[in-house]
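chain below, 378 aa
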Amino acid sequence: MYQIKGKIDSTNAPQFEEEILAAKPTEIDASGLQYISSAGLRVLMKLRKQVDDVTIFNVSPEVYEIFDVTGFTTILNVKKALREISVDGCELIGEGGNGAVYRLDNETIVKVYKSKIGIEGIDREREYARSAFMSGIPSVIAYDMVKVGDSYGVVFELLNSDTLGHAMKNNPEKLVEYTDQYVDLAKTLHSTEMPDGSIERVQDVYHRHIDNLTQWCSDEEIAIMHSITDEIPKVNTVVHGDFHPGNIMIHNDELVLIDMPGISMGPPICDLVATFRDMVSAPAGAEKGSIERSTGMPADLCIKVGNMFFMKYTGITDSEQLKEYFQKLGLLIAFNVILTVGGGSPKARELAPILMDKLLRGVVIPNEQTIKYLFKTL
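prediction:
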């Protein structure tokens, strides 16, 4: 990232212009910038004419005011410097593939993203979450973005809130009530339609992940996975992508979503497969403690809630029929787990060669036509 420091005025603007126009950066770190005059701003205007998308990060409040009053915040993507916080000694509420959630105090929580996720990815998630909220999906609204060590975080106001997973674990007498709310939230998601272009389509997400698998897969195998993705129905209803109780908070007796990195538009089956993976399939064979860290519940409770969830969501109450339904989901899970490798899951990438042999070549490719059919009919 290109850095600018000190004061930029008429005395050093020519040198600044020569250096920055030669570099043509799209990202500029202004954490060391103390002042910029109109001469410096004109240099940035020249840069903007040569580079389509320029973002200036870590701008101090004083310098940000200069950008703002001169109208440059409408021309350039200018972001204020982030306040730095520590989560040392804070209660860990939940932990998943994209980060961890801590309680800062009685009024606020912070989601700390893993270092692989940069500001642009976090901003995209916040924008998608805002679009979902405006469409009627219960989700928390982020306050400010913060710096937490080498990572970034987002602060939310959630008074006396807890994750749904913790609540299910700590209040067994309310398990049925909580599961009913869990199902209702899923149905709200899966019946909410988003305007075209407001968020990504699930097919675009899947295609991007598949393109990241080239080091483990042949061109033919990549083409088969793209072909499966192309057969997924194009609908505008919401898919969360990681819909388990560890990503849901209870706030004023209402369930609200706090983790929406994979939100997209697609058919409900894309969510149901991931939920079955996290709540039924994975807990059955997971190492002790790993499931509870993500969902907030021990594995046996996950399986119990998962079964209740699918019976209530699908209306299937006969155990044999539910077993048949789960077997069909199992085929789609193989495809789903392969996509997590392309999505950058560190654990999945470590196991990538094994997963490709066992799931891609052993399950997905032999059942290509069936998987296409299930995506359309389940």
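The mean pLDDT is 88. The chain has three domains: 2-81, 91-157, 162-377.
thats it, cya
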